[in-house]
């Protein structure tokens, strides 16, 4: 045994130095020391790598690492997503989008969320293994969280972040990472990945070419602190580089970022993965080097071990032979990757790995569904309320109007899984007040110029039946494991409506999660087809417009006649319609055929009935006939998001060019106000919206973000008072006419509450309640300290209203008469507390000047604390300071 340990140690030494080249040999049968759990993970990884050929090593450095059967190494794809739930892997609980989770200002809740996500990820991974599946989105290495700073509201991916503040981002990010990675002293539950390192927040269209050159003060005080916290406090196992350059270096091959800062300064011990195909950018777009092998060598030498893409596998062997990089350097990188896989328990007996025992029933469990509703409740921000909220449950007629009221995409944002039973805001309102008449009218499209398949109402279940004799309502669905509807269906069931959207998920995943489908009944996530058949029962005689929509192909038949033929691939949800004459009392044979090719899938069956008013007039009539109007609008992930190929008025490639509510919606909202009925505005979006007119003219405004699978219930809970809103804005809402700095300017001057000079529409940290809170008794245990001395701050907070509720107590530090340019104030503490009516609690914070007042001194090239006077501000937002005190820091 001692001899074997010496051999492994020797292999490790060879793998981690450039002293000599490795001699690779084939391991004798049964001689696999990397499976011996008495050795350290690093020793085992080095022993395994020592048996690989150069080509095998290079292939293992791609996200889609192939199997090496002779060494017992299974295929593994490192690419997995878990931004707000396990994403793109089929059925999973979908929590509010990351920006909504940040709006909770609830660190303990964030830990619960990520722990639940990691339970589902582990359960799904081991189920995939039982089915001998090793593909993308089936692993244990998750590329979340996104802790970039949301510095500009125009960025389409800002929804993925925790907002504009480095401190809030750090606190939420650390909690998220710890929940994902678990607390086992030996095995990681999952690997979390802090991304995108660093200085990355749009524009999306330029991300492959631009060079971010912030001052080092902005870099150190804004763009890096959250990453530093996740490395030092969260022990995050992976960091993802960005596409862009930083100070002329590719962020995915930057000596300054990856070696000088990440490893030497912060002591990072994990691995670095490039953003996807960012290695290609190094030579093709940034033109830092001329060839793929030079790009691969540069990235590995500067610290990127894993290539999300296809550059390393073919190029690194060439680079070694050309002398651009040594094989020992490759060995060191591959050893780091296999050490991570070893630490996840991938090469150990499952019974030894605590996390391998999580049952598949954890996926989409009732407890996780309840948590999704709770998180959504906590994320909702009440921006304005003139007393109209909460609504009375005695209301008789409610008009729910607007383009996102009944749109599942308004719940999901981006990077999401497939929820079992998503509850739209319309559905949530109907469930909350079953005795009220709730009328829905979409009114307008989301934005101008967009062919919106969700605009036409789905055919409701009462007008469909699977056959003439069935008491059920809906259509018979036959699900096939191929694109051409051939063979025996893998599953047959009755679907009440045809309105589905799957993000990289199988249409039967939810049935498997509920225990209703097993083994052979499953349908793949790609290359499947479905046939729905049954009878259509028109309620009135007249002219109908029947519409199908799908991503990819679909065909619609009525009484055997082909009405619509769109049997071809499509990269988006595409609609087509036919006009037909139907008679009341007749049953028409209906058949919809659909196939999905690759990536996202979706299909709809909708219609407009005879005599239906134009959508805009329909919405106004619904408002006139109601007691109250709930306008539900804003954005969805269809228009704001990551590097899109389509653009619309106000949107360019996923980013925004106009901060206002889209023009279609502004026109409708103003017309609704003119009906004279009270209007409650509910916004869905992943970014700040300039709703200046609404702030002046609409009595109540609710920000729901992208609230997840139970978002509709949570919004209804707030509207009708079952939940008292306490979400807070993690971003500044600017006025429509505010002239912001250029989008591609990475200087922080004029951006976010920390540097903004103007008056915001709604301030960072803002959020109202149905009760009131009083602050008093702010005390500091010392008011004069040096940089190393801690200060304990306490404040009394009392619920002075008549309802129980949460308050988010926020502490800011502001320099007095600062001698150099710096942030006006900075969040340095927050606590979300629950108080009963009349209850008072003392809230305490601990601050240390060396940590909480440090700034970057560019003259000294180091952090320092400026001596002088500071104000300690505690209150309900960055603009609603209730109590203040002074603190003096000495030299």
TrEMBL record:
Keywords, A to Z, come to:
Hydrolase, Signal
GO molecular function annotations of the record = hydrolase activity
Query: Which Pfam families does the UniProt record give?
Result: Fn3-like, Glyco_hydro_3, Glyco_hydro_3_C, PA14
All residue ranges annotated as the PA14 domain in the record = 470-623
In terms of superkingdom, the source organism counts as Bacteria
Record-linked PROSITE patterns: PA14 (PS51820)
Q: Name the InterPro entries for this protein.
A: BXL (IPR044993), Fn3-like (IPR026891), GH (IPR017853), Glyco_hydro_3_C (IPR002772), Glyco_hydro_3_C_sf (IPR036881), Glyco_hydro_3_N (IPR001764), Glyco_hydro_3_N_sf (IPR036962), Ig-like_fold (IPR013783)
- Specify the signal sequence span: 1-21
Q: Which Gene3D superfamilies match?
A: Glycoside hydrolase family 3 C-terminal domain, Glycoside hydrolase, family 3, N-terminal domain, Immunoglobulins
The keyword Amino-acid biosynthesis belongs to this UniProt entry's keyword annotation: no
Q: Which SUPFAM superfamilies match?
A: (Trans)glycosidases (SSF51445), Anthrax protective antigen (SSF56988), Beta-D-glucan exohydrolase, C-terminal domain (SSF52279)
Which family is this sequence assigned to? Belongs to the glycosyl hydrolase 3 family.
Indicate what this protein is called per its UniProt record. Glycoside hydrolase family 3 C-terminal domain-containing protein
Species whose genome carries this gene: Lysobacter stagni
